[in-house]
Design goal:
alpha+beta; globular
Length: about 90
């Protein structure tokens, strides 16, 4: 499954971009896909990952069905798409 759309969504929702150097992409396995959002001025952070149910449901969508699947995803409640995971302290290894 390709999760680059998560980075696209994070950029669209926050205004962050690779060019502004306020978003970064790190290679990860399917099980390690996470997105951490942090307010720079407060240090407050939240980490989200695709829920297990979402991953299982959309893992092997054929290319020809991606447009329909994306419309389906748009109709899902946030809780069916993402789950919050504990955010490690700054500087701690993942």
């Amino acid at each position: 499954m390709h999760f680059s759309c998560i980075a696209d969504g994070a950029a669209a929702a926050t205004g962050a971009s690779l060019g502004k150097l306020n978003i970064s992409l790190v290679a990860a396995s399917d099980a390690g896909i996470e997105t951490t959002y942090q307010r720079r001025w407060t240090g407050q952070a939240m980490t989200l990952r695709p829920s297990a149910a979402f991953h299982a449901r959309f893992r092997d969508v054929p290319r020809a069905q991606l447009a329909a699947a994306s419309q389906e995803v748009l109709s899902l409640p946030d809780g069916e798409v993402f789950e919050e995971v504990p955010t490690p302290p700054a500087g701690a290894p993942r």
